[in-house]
Amino acid sequence: MQKLEVFGANKLKGQIKISGSKNASLPILAATLLSNKKIILKNLPKVRDIETMLALLQSLGSKIKLDKNKTIIDNSKQNKKFASYNLVKTMRAGILVLGPLLAKHKSAKVSLPGGCAIGTRPVDIHLKALSKLGVKYKIDQGYVIANAPKGLKGNKIKFPKISVGATENLIIAASFAKGTTILSNCAIEPEINDLVNFLKEMGCNIKWISKRTIKIIGVSKIKEISYSVMFDRIEAGTYLVAAAVTEGNLRISNIVPEIIKTEINLLKKLGSKVMIKKNEVQIIGNRKIKNTKITTAPYPGFPTDLQAQIMVLLCKANKSSIIKEDIFENRFMHVAELNRMGARISTNGNKAIVEGNINFAPAELMATDLRASVSLILAALTAKGKSVINRIYHLDRGYENIEKKLKKVGAKIRRVN
Ligand code: UD1
User: Which end of the chain is more exposed for a tag (fewer CB within 10 A), N or C?
Assistant: First the structure.
């Protein structure tokens, strides 16, 4: 099994180019199933979750060609409707093929996503909302078996809770349903807007009618298009924290700063100097870091996917901080590992109290999920000496070329078998 060795503590300096967004690419790839034409996608990140989604599409009959900087998807002969457990178990986003398969073929059998370390993560909201479009379903041996003999029919649906995945599944399905669908209490993450832009370019009729309400008039024909996926805002946020925590000086490029203004404002408040340019931000870390109280929330709030990373920075604040995790029920697995490196973090339910003034000590560590893994790297970058991070397959699900990118800006990091 591969490990990462990190030798701290160097200040990171230079430029990091941000890759395409994993969380935007996944629903966009699922949405290509609506089409029976050729679609060219650019800027897909080279990460494991995208490979898994491409394998899932291939298993459903999509023809996929990987060119240097583009992925060509031909769905003219796409005809299968079965998404197996093997392909969906490692990646919850596999459930996103359910909406488009039902919209196009009127039936589908899709594995329930596998268990996930950060909480139970059910798909009840997806299923209940799809049933309002005319879908009948049952759960049998870990599979959702669903059909809509008369096809999907538009409806008014209010999500009981904000869910990124359910909003995406429903937007895709409703794009091909008969009539008009109004979805309210939608998630408004930038990745959802990217999906909407992609669908609109394909010829779908979609319009936001208020902050969290979207109107979709179903269409039956889709155009052949070429689309470039947005930047990965979580990757960008991770490297912003890397600069702050190592007292470095990084230019984070290929981004739209406006989209990550919550993160930029927080880092400024905590003491970093941040200069905003057109498609780039420069961040200079400060030795003195202020404490704060953060609660994770749906966009435009502070993202749960950056909670573990910001916790590392808060370990270095002048006083203790509080982090409340309001999205997932069990997303503090990194705490035990950070404490092994000398952090003093205690948790009580969904609240973590993070003592400040910590100098991390190097250690041998175990990665537990995607964002927890990267938080261990961040802590290791500041710890004088050698840290070893095991189980990095979690990291490879979502960070493209992380060692290469970090090495280029002065980190001592290497992958060993
Ligand atoms: C997406 C992101 C993930 C991010 C999360 C929250 C992708 C591929 N993943 O995940 O990185 O951390 O948004 O920003 O884009 N819930 C239910 N029932 C459902 C659906 C969700 O109870 O049917 C709950 C979840 O357990 C969780 C909360 O709602 O507690 C939010 O989940 P959701 O927004 O759906 O997250 P994902 O789409 O899975």
Answer: C
* C-alpha Rg value of the chain to the nearest Å: 21
Domain's final residue, options 204, 228, 252: 228
Q: What is the pLDDT of residues 6-17, one digit of tens each?
A: 999 999 999 999
- Which among 190, 207, 228 is the end of a domain? 228
Interval 374-383 mean pLDDT: 98
Rounded CA gap, 69 and 227, in Å?
12
Q: pTM surpassing 0.85? A: yes
- Rounded distance, CA 209 to CA 402, Å? 39
130 lines ligand 1 (CB under 6 A): no
CA 328 / ligand 1 centre spacing (Å): 8
Q: Residue 156's domain is classified under what CATH number?
A: 3.65.10.10
Give the pLDDT of residue 1. Answer: 84
Bridge partners for 366 per DSSP: 390
Give the residue, by CA position, lying nearest to ligand 1 atom 30: 328
Q: Alpha-carbon distance 403 to 193, whole Å?
A: 30
Do 274 and 185 have their domain in common?
no
Contact 397, 232 (CB under 8 A): no
CA of 119, closest atom in ligand 1:
26
Query: Beta partners for 153?
Result: 178
Neighbours of 220 (CB within 10 A): 7
The closest alpha carbon to 168, from 201, 138, 123, belongs to: 123
Q: Cα angle vertex 78, ends 77, 80, to 5°?
A: 130
pLDDT digits (tens, 9 = 90+) for 274-314: 999 999 999 999 999 999 999 999 999 999 999 999 999 99
- Residue 164: strand, helix, or coil: helix
| Ligand 1 in reach of 30 Cβ (< 6 A) | no
From the CB of 160, is ligand 1 less than 6 Å away?
no
Do 196 and 303 lie in a common domain? no
124 Cβ below 6 A of ligand 1: yes
